[in-house]
Amino acid sequence: MCGIASILSTNPSRPLAMQRMIQALRHRGTDGEGIYHDACVSLGHRRLAIIDLDGGKQPLRNAEGTVWQVCNGEIYNHRELRRQLEADGHRFLTHSDCEVIIGLYERYGEGLLDRLRGMFAFVLWDARDCKLIAARDHLGQKPLYYRYADGEFACASEIKALLACEQRTPRLNIAALDQYFALRLIEAPLSMFEGISKLPPGHVLTLSAFATPHIRRYWTLEQQPKSTDSESALLDELEARLEETLRLHLESDVPVGAFLSGGMDSGLLVAMLARKLKVGRLPTFTMGLGQERFDEAPAARAVAALHDTDHHEDRISPDMIALLPDLIAALDEPSDPLSLCTWLLAKFTCQHVKVVIGGDGGDELFGGYDRYYGNLYASHYGRVPAALRRRVFAPAMSLIPESGWYKSVGHQLRWLHHLSFHEGGARYAASLSYFYFDRERRGALYGPSARPHWDSLDAEEAIRAPYASSAARAGSELDRMLYADSLVRLPNHPVMITDRICMAHGLEARSPFMDHELAMFAARLPDALKVRGGTLRHIQRKLAARYLPPSVLNRPKQGFSSALPYLLQSQYTRLYETCLRTSRLVEDGILDGAAIAALVNEHAARRADHGNRLWLLINSELWYRMMIRGESRADVSAELTEGVTMKRRFG
Length: 651
What we know:
Elements: E1 2-8, H1 14-24, E2 33-37, E3 41-47, E4 60-61, E5 67-75, H2 78-87, H3 100-108, E6 118-126, E7 131-136, E8 145-149, E9 152-156, H4 159-166, H5 174-183, E10 197-198, E11 203-208, E12 214-217, H6 231-249, E13 256-259, H7 264-275, E14 283-289, H8 297-306, E15 310-316, H9 320-331, H10 337-349, E16 355-357, H11 362-366, H12 370-381, H13 386-397, H14 409-419, H15 424-433, H16 439-445, H17 461-472, H18 477-492, H19 494-504, E17 508-510, H20 516-523, H21 538-544, H22 550-553, H23 564-567, H24 569-580, H25 584-587, H26 593-604, H27 611-628, H28 633-642
Parallel strand pairs: 13-14, 13-16, 14-15, 16-17
Antiparallel strand pairs: 1-3, 1-9, 2-3, 4-5, 5-6, 6-7, 7-11, 8-9, 8-10, 11-12
Helix pairs in contact: 1-4, 2-3, 6-21, 9-27, 9-28, 10-19, 13-14, 14-15, 15-17, 17-18, 18-19, 24-27, 26-27
């Protein structure tokens, strides 16, 4: 795990620019740095030493010094690949897992990507052909951002390195902001900055002799044909495949621990590591919360005791006000409640281990979200005549209080009613945007500077397009939702947050569920083995029953990240006053002050629930101040923590 950067340019200031980029990525690798320069290219690397501690320094090269490479991530099948390449006569210079990429390139060219199994983002430079190749792993566990302007190309693990490289005044990307408001994520290739793009998962970028970059998809998650074996046989196969990928994810020359939330994903992984792979006294890490309803520590403690792990637990009192500027600085984008929880857990975990296994991907592979069966219910409700739904059911639902937690019965009924007026991919997109800003709400949100762009903005297309793509391959409605999530939500939301926040603490996070071969197996499981009526993750639940007690297995899905807007109301009030009543986004005409004031006032008076929407607005405002207006993290933190009251009010 590390941070990488590359510049392809003949500008004489390139070495200084590379040094700035590497310095900006220092947090991703505290064990050293390496830089390679030639007449055309600079490659930079910050190292977090995990494998081949003494000899795995990067940039890596071939024996002749004609092919150079920097890589972020882990190649889990590197031992097998090394044996094959050595049998073909390739000579290795280190024991680094990433060096196999050079050997595969010399043997197969870009076909090397068909043979890798792992999480990675790499840049490879072939000096013989003046050719640069950059690629990102199948499901997007490792990030890679790039910019191309005026014949110069640069890429890096994080946006902050590209900002350090070009030293230009950054500009807001309105389309990305619109997507964040609608979906609480920013889909590749967009970023929050104009001119900076995100390489999508499963894609490779090639650039020859300073030509325009060419980007192509090298891998697709295929959901057909469906497996026809019995449920019992598929359950055994799932267990065997998960055992295999867990064994690969243990590859490390430093100690490995595991997050243990008390939920099914992390509990199953920890249990299998202890019982199947015989990992003794596995270090496990949990955050406890004072609010009993959302505290997962007791369940995590039970799993740890059952499997005799070396369990570590910390109790927390979340402080959004103190941490929000740090979260935004780590993400380079507006934050999410999940990032606050991950920050606290990573800060605690990195005191004990350097590598940690987590449960990202389980929900998206096996159907773990309520919205999967909720969308199916909405399609049935949608068969009721629209006039009846509008004239009879809508007035009845309006009598149910709208304030309160977003998972309340009233919210769920309103959600289903809203979805019933959409179909297909539009319905699935609406199921995500409903609790944030749907198109109608966003239309009223923008100010005079952003309004001219409104007609060209279509945030929901990020969901509709992959949904339609799966449909074209004869996918079921569930397949279409899962496919859209695997392409869009998974890499751009939980996985992005896990990478940035853990790396901000020098912690490598590994996600066995996101092994692309396991993902392909899961994608071809029949629908009934994922969502069966109102039961989610049917086959995964069956497997977990072999390892976890009913008291853990049957717990309702909870966690406290989504509940933060409701748990920390007093902090929210401070943030409203400090951030939204003196909004720079309003000052610059991007957002409309009156629309924001209406949301704040309705929420404060409990006439409506805008908790999630106000979170998006607060984070966008703080991001804009820090990243676009250039206000320092220290100044923003001081304004938040000291409760500075400004006289300016909404325009």
